[in-house]
Amino acid sequence: MEVIAWYYLLAAGIILIGIEALFFSFFLIWIGVGCLAVSVLTYFGFFESGIAQISTAFAIGLILVFALRKWSMNMLNKTQDDTEEKAHQGGIGTIDKGMIKMGGTFWQSDDDLSAYKDGDKVEVVDIVNNKAVLK
Q1: Most C-beta atoms within 10 A of its C-beta, which of 26, 82, 116, 117?
Q2: What is the pLDDT of residues 48-78, one digit of tens each?
Q3: CB under 8 Å to 54, separation ≥6 — which residues?
Q4: Is residue 116 part of a domain?
Q5: Do 102 and 74 share a structural domain?
Q6: What is the per-residue DSSP string for 28-77?
């Protein structure tokens, strides 16, 4: 098999890394990096066979998959934050048509609002599961 031009390998590497962004397989990115490395080596004339190029690219990719899998999984887990970011945490709300209006947003509540009439002020302690918790 003829030598694959370095720019085809470069394009294949970039495409594989781009596809990885869509599928999150943690495999294609490393094969893409292998293609990029073989592209550089081909540019400097290290290969005389296309089969050797493809084999080397996949070998580099597989070595990187096994060597860096734990690291990349740790990086992914560090970026995931289980805490919910809350725009509204509490404050003073106004009863309006059986709901609590606070900060321009209407909130439902599990508390009994029948004792309140429209316009009454209530103190909201927190917003939990999109419902206002009264003090």
Answers
A1: 116
A2: 999 999 999 999 999 999 998 888 777 767 6
A3: 4
A4: yes
A5: no
A6: HHHHHHHHHHHHHHHHTT--S-HHHHHHHHHHHHHHHHHHHHHHHHHHHH
